[in-house]
């Protein structure tokens, strides 16, 4: 145990996936956690959530019963020809668990959230169960006294405050970050298709592929269909991207009346007839507003920090948004654990900033590139021998090795040593092992 360790009373604003994850990590580290959710329930909207090995490993480290989330374990990534549906690029995940120690899970968002909520609030598990208070929307935070004032008039004081309140974060503004956002050139409609309905309609059963599947995404075009199977394959979650001039949904919110199926199909007159048939029986057609946020300058101020979309909102095209929130939560759990926390909250948050901001910003940048070039997407970015493979900068491509070989404990130890003015003798740089050769030609620790 680190000298000076003490139990903290922590307030988390936001009861989504990120908020539940950090509550789990902190209760396991020995702290008392209260989650404040702004709505009248702590839940999630949407459908699929991608959880690669760099996220799944923390679910296991936190002893979460992953089976409760009813995931699909992905076996491959498939990119299909826009018109014919024939596979033109694949990335096999057959040896994924063997290489990285954990599988690639695809969850239904509501099921994943319920799984995490059970671990955060339940009596079973390490540490004291977190508390959840709904209808608590953050109005202001006094940074000197660490006091939160909520719109319902409640006032609460905490040793540490974590803003996990999403892309529209109030906490972000309070700590002095006022992003300039702009609509993406690409917009998206989402729909759900029940696998049984597709089979009854005589359409192909994509659930059998156990794959994250893509149509398009080539040649710098915004048109792209992404299929994510979840609920054990019973539900097919479709994300349908197209140029904003074919449908602008920036002023519409998820949860309003479903859009008509004709509107979903309109941008895709030449799309492969099999997946087009799936979309034609799609339900719960909802707009997903896509905004561009430039990287933020910091994630913490005094004894307050940001987590997940509140701190680094990104485009969805690397399927890493949830994993980055999980990694944020894991970093906070480690930094405030008995082995590392010496009682200095501000120093620990400064290290959190140095650990998390560069990695999340790197994924954020790579996600923007993958919006119009699927070869930039983790996994496909390794298929550099294909004749149509082309990326903006091969040396800067984000690879599966960079994501999954990362050791957060070593990254934290390196940054903590620097913060305390002591030496670091580990064979890692920013969490990656020195000498690791990445498929993009970069060797970790080698001079340029």
UniProtKB/TrEMBL annotation:
SUPFAM superfamilies: FAD-linked reductases, C-terminal domain, FAD/NAD(P)-binding domain. It holds the Pfam family FAD_binding_3. Belongs to the paxM FAD-dependent monooxygenase family. This is FAD-binding domain-containing protein. GO terms for molecular function: FAD binding; monooxygenase activity. Signal peptide: none annotated. Residues 159-364 form the FAD-binding domain. InterPro entries: FAD-bd, FAD-dep_Monooxygenase_BioMet, FAD/NAD-bd_sf. The keyword Protease does not apply. The keyword Transmembrane helix does not apply. Keywords: FAD, Flavoprotein, Monooxygenase, Oxidoreductase. It comes from the Eukaryota.
């Amino acid at each position: 145990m680190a000298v000076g360790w003490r139990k903290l009373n922590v307030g988390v604003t936001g009861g989504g996936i990120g908020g539940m994850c950090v509550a789990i990590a902190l209760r396991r580290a020995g702290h008392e956690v209260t989650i404040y959710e702004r709505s009248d329930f702590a839940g999630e909207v949407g459908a699929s959530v991608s959880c690669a090995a760099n996220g799944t490993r923390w679910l296991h480290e936190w002893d979460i019963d992953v089976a409760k989330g009813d995931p699909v374990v992905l076996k491959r990534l498939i990119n299909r020809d826009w018109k014919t549906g024939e596979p033109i690029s694949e990335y096999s995940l057959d040896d994924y668990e063997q290489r990285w120690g954990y599988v690639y899970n695809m969850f239904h968002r509501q099921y994943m959230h319920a799984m995490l909520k059970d671990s955060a609030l339940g009596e079973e598990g390490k540490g004291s169960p977190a508390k959840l208070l709904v209808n608590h929307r953050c109005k202001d935070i006094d940074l000197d006294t660490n006091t939160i004032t909520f719109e319902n008039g409640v006032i609460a004081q905490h040793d540490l405050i974590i803003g996990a309140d999403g892309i529209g974060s109030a906490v972000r503004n309070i700590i002095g970050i006022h992003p300039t956002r702009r609509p993406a050139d690409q917009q998206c409609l989402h729909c759900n298709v029940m696998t049984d309905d597709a089979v009854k309609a005589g359409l192909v059963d994509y659930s059998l592929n156990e794959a994250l599947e893509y149509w398009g995404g080539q040649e710098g075009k915004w048109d792209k269909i992404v299929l994510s199977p979840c609920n054990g394959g019973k539900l097919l979650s479709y994300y349908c991207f197209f140029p904003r001039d074919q449908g602008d949904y920036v002023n519409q919110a998820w949860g309003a009346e479903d859009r008509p199926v004709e509107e979903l199909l309109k941008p895709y007159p030449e799309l492969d007839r099999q997946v087009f048939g799936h979309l034609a029986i799609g339900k719960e057609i909802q707009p997903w507003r896509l905004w561009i946020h430039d990287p933020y300058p910091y994630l913490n101020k005094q004894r307050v920090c940001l987590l997940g979309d509140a701190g680094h909102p990104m485009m969805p095209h690397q399927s890493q948004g949830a994993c980055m929130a999980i990694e944020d939560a894991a970093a906070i759990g480690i930094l405030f654990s008995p082995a590392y926390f010496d009682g200095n909250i501000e120093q620990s948050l400064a290290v959190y900033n140095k650990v998390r901001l560069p990695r999340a910003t790197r994924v954020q940048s790579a996600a923007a590139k993958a919006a119009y070039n699927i070869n930039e997407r983790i996994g496909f970015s390794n298929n550099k021998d294909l004749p149509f493979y082309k990326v903006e900068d091969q040396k800067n491509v984000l690879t599966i090795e960079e994501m999954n070989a990362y050791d957060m404990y070593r990254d934290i130890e390196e940054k903590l040593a620097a913060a305390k003015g002591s030496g670091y003798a580990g064979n890692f740089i920013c969490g990656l092992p020195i000498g690791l050769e990445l498929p993009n030609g970069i060797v970790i620790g080698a001079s340029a």
